Amino acid sequence: MTAARRAGGPILVGLPAWGYLPAALGGLFVITPLLAILLRIDWANFVPLITSESSRAALIL
Predict the structure, then answer these.
(1) What's the confidence (pLDDT) of residue 36?
(2) d(Cα 10, Cα 5) in Å, to the nearest integer?
(3) How far, in Å, CA of 32 to CA of 34, rounded?
């Protein structure tokens, strides 16, 4: 990256325009599975499921 200095000011360093594409793809790579998980949860039975004996036993593992 190139630093451009203003007279008496701070050094300004910018992100290249092409850098936003991999950043956006990486964000989607993380967010998409999380959204899919949230959409598939049976919210009506969520609390009984996570407080069941088998769920608590699995958390100990």
Answers:
(1) 97
(2) 7
(3) 5
User: Helix, strand, or coil here: 9?
Assistant: coil
> Which residues, in sequence order, are bridge partners of residue 28?
none
Q: Measured between alpha carbons, how far is 40 from 42 in angstroms, rounded to an integer?
A: 6
Q: pTM score, two decimals?
A: 0.54
Q: Is 49 in contact with 55 (CB distance < 8 Å)?
A: yes
Report pLDDT digits (tens) over 2-61. 556 556 777 778 888 899 999 999 999 999 999 999 999 999 999 999 999 999 999 998
Token pair in block for residue 51: 């407080």
